[in-house]
Amino acid sequence: MDKLVLITGGGRGIGAATALLAAQRGYAVAVNYTANSLAADEVVRQIRAGGGTAMAVRADVADEAQVQAMFETIDAKLGRLTALVNNAGVVDTTQRVDEQSLARWQRMFAINVYGTMLCAREAVRRMSTRHGGSGGAIVNVGSVASIHGAAGQYVDYAAAKGAVDVFTLGLAREVATEGIRVNAVRPGIIDTEIHASGGQPGRAQRLAPQIPLQRPGTAQEIAHAIVWLLSDEASYATGSLVDITGGR
Question: What is the pTM of this model?
Fold first, then answer.
């Protein structure tokens, strides 16, 4: 069976590292992006330069019509999906809950939760033996914030990632007899651009002393965990929430 993975938010950070590693492991890769086409195109260029197969595909994962169109494009141009990495996500600026707006919460859940669910639904429709598929694997990128709660920073982000945890557990059990494994990786403090998008570009290094390993993680370290969970080496893993946190 040819291996084909869709990685949402695949142009930067953990998504880009996962795309490059998956390509090295023999996957054809669909690199999803929302706005930054240059970053996604660069990931595709690097994969192709290494002899791999890749394409960039634009879609806002919070928009159902765009998600459906993205999957249809992948069907037509790359074939039947065998793996999905739900990596697209957002944080926001540091605020207490009593300072946050409904609009902020709606955006947070639309991308981090509904986007994950929409993409998983479309993947199941293609992978499940119930729908004529040959099985596959889904890895959701959560966050250890779902355990710690992110008090005084972004409780709404932590709550959204908590929903991803529960969705992972439920979906894993729902499709276990249909050839699909569903797991989640929950990173700790990782040195990627997501901190800058939340207004704290130096956050990862600033928090290093609070981490038992005394450093933030790298996108590549998370990518290795994700690609392992996609692989046959993880064939008995489903419904697992794998924390990669440096001990935090």
Answer: 0.94
